[in-house]
C-alpha cells in the first residue's frame, strides 16, 4: 500500500479503534503515591502579599512516618549495613569516653613568651 492513499471514514475508524485497544492493553493505572526517599522535598511558602487563605490539609500519618523514615540515618533505618561501604563506620560510638580535661586529646590554644612577642610585633606593624 502506498502511504499517500486516502482512507474512507470506516477505515480511519477501524485504525482508531485498533490504536485505542493497543493503548488500553498496555496501560497501567497507578493509584498509590509514595515519595522518593532519594530526593529532598522542598516545601515552598506562599507569596508574601498573597491574600489566599492557606489550604487545610488533613494529616496523613502514614505519609509523615514514611517521610521521617526516609530522612533517618542508615543506622536507625536498618539493623545491619546494606553495602560494604556502610560496614566501615557502622558502629560509630567512640572507643574512649570524651573528657575535656584530658590533655592527650584536647589541644587548647595557649600563649608563650615567643608567641606574645610575635603578636605584639604584628600589631605594631599594622
UniProtKB/TrEMBL annotation:
<dbReference type="InterPro" id="IPR029214">
    <property type="entry name" value="CFAP144"/>
</dbReference>
<dbReference type="Pfam" id="PF14886">
    <property type="entry name" value="FAM183"/>
</dbReference>
<keyword id="KW-0206">Cytoskeleton</keyword>
<comment type="similarity">
    <text>Belongs to the CFAP144 family.</text>
</comment>
<keyword id="KW-0963">Cytoplasm</keyword>
<dbReference type="GO" id="GO:0005856">
    <property type="term" value="C:cytoskeleton"/>
</dbReference>
<keyword id="KW-0966">Cell projection</keyword>
<protein>
    <submittedName>
        <fullName>Cilia and flagella associated protein 144</fullName>
    </submittedName>
</protein>
<dbReference type="GO" id="GO:0097546">
    <property type="term" value="C:ciliary base"/>
</dbReference>
Amino acid at each position: 500500500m502506498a502511504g499517500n492513499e486516502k482512507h474512507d471514514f470506516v477505515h480511519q475508524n477501524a485504525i482508531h479503534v485498533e490504536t485505542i485497544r493497543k493503548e488500553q492493553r498496555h496501560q497501567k493505572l497507578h493509584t498509590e503515591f509514595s515519595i522518593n526517599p532519594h530526593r529532598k522535598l522542598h516545601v515552598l511558602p506562599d507569596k508574601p502579599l498573597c491574600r489566599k487563605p492557606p489550604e487545610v490539609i488533613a494529616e496523613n500519618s502514614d505519609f509523615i512516618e514514611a517521610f521521617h523514615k526516609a530522612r533517618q540515618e542508615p543506622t536507625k533505618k536498618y539493623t545491619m549495613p546494606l553495602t560494604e561501604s556502610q560496614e566501615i563506620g557502622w558502629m560509630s560510638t567512640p572507643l574512649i569516653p570524651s573528657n575535656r580535661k584530658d590533655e592527650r586529646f584536647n589541644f587548647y590554644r595557649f600563649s608563650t613568651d615567643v608567641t606574645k612577642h610575635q603578636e605584639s610585633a604584628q600589631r605594631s606593624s599594622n
